[in-house]
Amino acid sequence: MSVGGLAGLGSGPASAAVPAFPDNVVVFPDRDFVTIEGYQDHIGEQGTVTVTRNGQVVGSAVGRVAEGDVAFEINHPGGVCWGAGTGFNVTPDIRKGDKVSIAFPDGASGDTTTSTGSATSHAARDGQTVKVEGTYGPDVVAGQAEVRIVNPDLTAEVGRRDVRAVTGGLTVAPKGGYSSNLEMAGGRFTATFVFDTLKAAQIAEATQVERFMSWQVEDGDANRQGLTISEFGELGGPGMGGCPAGPADVAPPRGHYSITRSVDKAKLAVRWTPADSPAGTPAVTSYNVQAFKADDTSVGARVGASATGATLAVDPAVVDYTVEVRSMAGTTMGVPFEPAPTTGSGELPADQTVPRLTISPAASGNTAETAVEASSVMLGSESAADVYVTTDGSEAVLGDLPGDTAQLYRSPIAITALTEIHAVAIDRAGNISAQAIGFYKPVGAQVLNAPTGLVATPGIGQVALKWVAPSGSSTAVTGYQVEASTVAADGTTTPLPVQPTVTTDTNQVVTGLASSTRYAFTVKALYGAAASSPSPAATATTPLASARVAITTGRWKNADTRIQGTTDQPALTSSVVRFYRKSADGTYSTQYAGPSALVAAVAPATGSTFDGRFRTSALTGTTNPGQVVAKLFDGSGNELGASAPFTLTSG
């Protein structure tokens, strides 16, 4: 742009629901590949597929529905690329917990939430037995999961190209050739395949791609809806030539910029409105600003990622400079920003014409006590001028240039809290309007205070949280939402793929956590559809657990309660299992029953089992305790591991 003178990204579709057969959204997260099945009442129409993570769009594409079982595919040969028809040119790295949605112009829609289940190691063989192990989260239902090993070479040995394992015990395959079983407990699974021939076992071991399939809904005809197929060993990224790069390789984003030159021509103020980096792509680390003369010599500056402008010292004798602004992600430089259009539509003013700034609604004063209620504030000018604004109380103009924190105005300013606005219009000739100053507050502003005093107490595989209910809010609290993240050694946090459920208590135990891991927690108070800001964070590091423990069945009745389960530890005579019920503070610190001895598991299973039966009212109590956990102790009384909470059934 020669001296003389922003882009946004829309949000994702509204929440849909798991499609009903024959429609389906099938997600292959390891290959970043999606299949849209059915939707035959939309043949020839275009459907928009969107991938969202924590409510933020990370990928999208438009496909046209074809006749047949498969409507269309994305990121797979014969299908369309991510970004097709949407301009969001990133192949998303689809992760556990991401939501993949499809929507049509008539409002028809459906979605699948990507399952947390996946194999964690390749198939391992011991003689004619092959095992596949992996993990899953609380979103996975044991009866709605299956493990497959796919290899066409298996057809000659077992009568089909794949072998399959589901829960329910070791079972002979319908066509023979092998028996299989899928065991799921405590967030870990083991699929066991016992083959009739050594050759079949060797083929299965050599496959090196293991599928864990899980589905959100199974209808009355056993159709699997909301299906995720995790393929351990497959690689993500563009699935065919010509598709856009994955998040790590996307160029930094381009925004819009404007220029103001001082009256003495010795300074050039450049201000920009950056575009957000798509979720999952490298963050902007800096901005590079250059002002070029006609002979291509230049002056420039490199400023930080939070900057929205830079002021360059230039040669007053040079009439025109060509300015270039680019965002940087590490050493990768993006394409040049585009010049921002002026706010007004008039011609460039004469040198002495001062632009007029408009602000709506008008401020009634410049103090917080006179704040005007507004949902948003709009700024403008009747002439070809750039409007600059601050919302932090700082000046919008300093001398004859925009203030240090002033930003180029592009859209109405949402008022969600008490806000002090300073605004000014500067035309391309350097004329400056009077600065507008005003305070604004939300319409009918609610006071939504956050919880306080959050405390985190770690235990094996879990953390117990307590907090103090907020006071002074203008609306009653309807619940609390805890948000949990892992904390890396450098202090960076990563949200858990599955967050704790909403609770109405002022305490909650977050279970299913890894051992010897640092976690951070915050809690928000919920006020109907609104929520407070998060509380200050509390951190805790779970102790090292040396044993896996799981309750498999449990039934309560007065004077006869029985709890059974498994552990990966050997059946040592000194080891015992005790059972604990939930205490008033949300922890499992009150012993309910036990001890129960360990019994060696029956081969081919490993580890041991426990079977605690308690036949007196003194042990069982006269009411069902609800949730209990099983804790394993060694002969010295050291806790080795604990199960996830298990709800006892009555009867």
From TrEMBL:
<dbReference type="InterPro" id="IPR036116">
    <property type="entry name" value="FN3_sf"/>
</dbReference>
<keyword id="KW-0378">Hydrolase</keyword>
<protein>
    <recommendedName>
        <fullName>Fibronectin type-III domain-containing protein</fullName>
    </recommendedName>
</protein>
<dbReference type="Pfam" id="PF13287">
    <property type="entry name" value="Fn3_assoc"/>
</dbReference>
<feature type="domain" description="Fibronectin type-III">
    <location>
        <begin position="450"/>
        <end position="545"/>
    </location>
</feature>
<feature type="region of interest" description="Disordered">
    <location>
        <begin position="105"/>
        <end position="127"/>
    </location>
</feature>
<keyword id="KW-0326">Glycosidase</keyword>
<dbReference type="InterPro" id="IPR003961">
    <property type="entry name" value="FN3_dom"/>
</dbReference>
<feature type="compositionally biased region" description="Low complexity">
    <location>
        <begin position="106"/>
        <end position="122"/>
    </location>
</feature>
<dbReference type="InterPro" id="IPR013783">
    <property type="entry name" value="Ig-like_fold"/>
</dbReference>
<dbReference type="InterPro" id="IPR026876">
    <property type="entry name" value="Fn3_assoc_repeat"/>
</dbReference>
<dbReference type="Pfam" id="PF00041">
    <property type="entry name" value="fn3"/>
</dbReference>
<keyword id="KW-0119">Carbohydrate metabolism</keyword>
<keyword id="KW-0624">Polysaccharide degradation</keyword>
